[in-house]
Amino acid sequence: MASEPTFYAIYDADSSFLGEVRYLRGKCLGRAECALCDLSHGWNPLGRSNWRRRKGVAASLNWLHRDELPGHVAAQVGGQLPCVAVDRNGEIEIMIGREALQGCEGDFSVFEHLLEQTVRALHAERAPDTDGGSTA
Q1: Is 85 in contact with 8 (CB distance < 8 Å)?
Q2: pTM (2 decimals)?
Q3: Which of 68, 74, 96, 121 is deepest in the core (most CB within 10 A)?
């Protein structure tokens, strides 16, 4: 029996205090970039107000840093961060990659719209055949 998919929003940064400091230093020096960090936090350590009030699919995402990922997820997405990925019974698929996240240009409402469209398309492709398998 298939379980419900698990969705991850994965930052290209570590969760520890030192990891956060390293990322911030790199961001200030122009050496580090994480489009997902820009979407959820920007320069606010508590998070942007839109992100804190997230709803819909964005609220169901597991927002994790790269060092917080389950091993099987980390093995599949390494080197492709930041991203939004789905885990369907151990099969990991990147739904929204780095370039698409950068394309949101830090606008959380643009991200939410992209996420909703992506999840809707994902459900449509996995919907059971409703015509009994017949072909016209």
Answers
A1: yes
A2: 0.84
A3: 96
